[in-house]
């Protein structure tokens, strides 16, 4: 087997370069994907919360009904800078990835 490699000429080695580069690119790309925490490629569900209160074990917010005026608009995309309230960031998120998320709007009934 080693004799096979010893008998390769310079042009033979040069012709193997594209194959070697392709193998390296595939290996590097695979490592990059796995190292970048893309759990969906590993069969795990991906994270919804990318930035809200990441130091807390669980994000829980409480809003008193009495503090809601005529209506309150709550974020369901987890991209709002005013979380738990919607700041319209869902529009950029939807444009970026083709999603269709929007806020939860709670209204008081007109009496
Ligand atoms: S910003 Fe998240 S639903 Fe609007």
Automatic annotation (TrEMBL):
Gene3D superfamilies, sorted: CDGSH iron-sulfur domain, mitoNEET-type (3.40.5.90)
Presence of keyword Metal-binding: yes
Coiled-coil regions, chain positions: none
Q: Name one GO biological process term.
A: regulation of autophagy
Q: Which Pfam families match?
A: zf-CDGSH (PF09360)
Boundaries of every Iron-binding zinc finger CDGSH type domain copy = 58-96
* UniProt keywords, alphabetically: 2Fe-2S, Iron, Iron-sulfur, Membrane, Metal-binding, Transmembrane, Transmembrane helix
Family recorded in the similarity comment = Belongs to the CISD protein family. CISD2 subfamily.
| Cofactor (UniProt) | [2Fe-2S] cluster
Q: Name one GO molecular function term.
A: metal ion binding
- Gene Ontology CC annotations of this record: mitochondrial outer membrane
- Please verify whether the record's keywords include Cytoplasm: no
Question: Would you say which domain of life the source belongs to?
Answer: Eukaryota
- Recorded protein name is CDGSH iron-sulfur domain-containing protein 2
Question: Which species expresses this protein natively?
Answer: Halocaridina rubra (Hawaiian red shrimp)
Stretches that traverse the bilayer = 13-34
